[in-house]
């Protein structure tokens, strides 16, 4: 890979949008669930000026078969799923040393950090009381795709993703995802992400991914 970077990125945050994704209010029922089951998440969900809630695309009504797996099959497994955009690098909940998976990109190309909160039920299990590894891959794909949608002016498609499993995710559990773009070169975009314990910062799994931008222009949701 070339070490050269693109020209400085312009912010795609406007009054109502973050890139291709509209800003939204976090549903009350999700706020109530997080308050009961993941009080550590209050730092994120109670600061919308810093951690901007954005629409999770598959929750849009569809008249086609697009996203039927996520929209129809996954909700009992992951009943609460929200996405938040932070302008700049953030390693929450670790305040001092950012993870190696979300190291800042070159100074000429600074991107924000996407956070996701996934509430996993026991229906996500592979082994007893343990989230299925295949589901973790699905969660990563959603998180990585949000990084693209919030930062790029066009859609992109997954070319490859490498997942490393570090520590099992015990269920039920609200798991924190965080990811960001680290490099852009032509139509190729490199993205990294993690699933972590939102209270301790312990890493459950990491992902490194390569995406290819569409030749088409920006298409907001």
From TrEMBL:
<dbReference type="GO" id="GO:0005758">
    <property type="term" value="C:mitochondrial intermembrane space"/>
</dbReference>
<keyword id="KW-0966">Cell projection</keyword>
<keyword id="KW-0378">Hydrolase</keyword>
<dbReference type="GO" id="GO:0005743">
    <property type="term" value="C:mitochondrial inner membrane"/>
</dbReference>
<dbReference type="GO" id="GO:0016787">
    <property type="term" value="F:hydrolase activity"/>
</dbReference>
<dbReference type="InterPro" id="IPR029069">
    <property type="entry name" value="HotDog_dom_sf"/>
</dbReference>
<feature type="domain" description="Thioesterase">
    <location>
        <begin position="130"/>
        <end position="203"/>
    </location>
</feature>
<comment type="similarity">
    <text>Belongs to the THEM4/THEM5 thioesterase family.</text>
</comment>
<protein>
    <recommendedName>
        <fullName>Acyl-coenzyme A thioesterase THEM4</fullName>
        <ecNumber>3.1.2.2</ecNumber>
    </recommendedName>
</protein>
<dbReference type="GO" id="GO:0006915">
    <property type="term" value="P:apoptotic process"/>
</dbReference>
<dbReference type="Pfam" id="PF03061">
    <property type="entry name" value="4HBT"/>
</dbReference>
<dbReference type="InterPro" id="IPR006683">
    <property type="entry name" value="Thioestr_dom"/>
</dbReference>
<keyword id="KW-1003">Cell membrane</keyword>
<dbReference type="GO" id="GO:0006631">
    <property type="term" value="P:fatty acid metabolic process"/>
</dbReference>
<keyword id="KW-0443">Lipid metabolism</keyword>
<keyword id="KW-0963">Cytoplasm</keyword>
<keyword id="KW-0809">Transit peptide</keyword>
<keyword id="KW-0999">Mitochondrion inner membrane</keyword>
<keyword id="KW-0053">Apoptosis</keyword>
<keyword id="KW-0496">Mitochondrion</keyword>
<dbReference type="InterPro" id="IPR052365">
    <property type="entry name" value="THEM4/THEM5_acyl-CoA_thioest"/>
</dbReference>
<keyword id="KW-0276">Fatty acid metabolism</keyword>
<keyword id="KW-0472">Membrane</keyword>
């Amino acid at each position: 890979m070339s070490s050269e970077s693109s020209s400085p990125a312009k912010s795609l945050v406007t009054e109502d949008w973050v890139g291709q994704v509209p800003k939204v209010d976090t549903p009350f029922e999700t706020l109530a669930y997080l308050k009961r089951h993941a009080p550590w998440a209050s730092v994120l969900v109670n600061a919308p000026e810093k951690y901007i809630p954005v629409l999770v695309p598959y929750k849009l009504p569809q008249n086609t078969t697009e996203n039927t797996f996520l929209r129809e099959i996954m909700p009992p497994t992951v009943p609460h799923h929200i996405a938040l955009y932070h302008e700049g690098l953030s390693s929450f909940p670790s305040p001092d040393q950012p993870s190696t998976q979300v190291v800042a990109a070159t100074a000429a190309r600074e991107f924000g950090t996407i956070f996701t909160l996934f509430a996993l039920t026991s229906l996500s299990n592979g082994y007893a009381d343990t989230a299925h590894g295949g589901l973790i891959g699905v969660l990563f794909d959603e998180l990585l795709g949000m990084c693209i949608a919030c930062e790029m002016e066009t859609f992109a498609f997954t070319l490859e993703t490498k997942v490393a499993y570090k520590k099992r995710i015990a269920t039920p559990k609200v798991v924190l995802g965080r990811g960001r773009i680290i490099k852009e070169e032509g139509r190729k975009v490199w993205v990294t992400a993690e699933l972590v314990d939102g209270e301790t910062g312990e890493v459950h799994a990491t992902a490194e991914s390569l995406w290819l931008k569409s030749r088409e222009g920006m298409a907001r949701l």
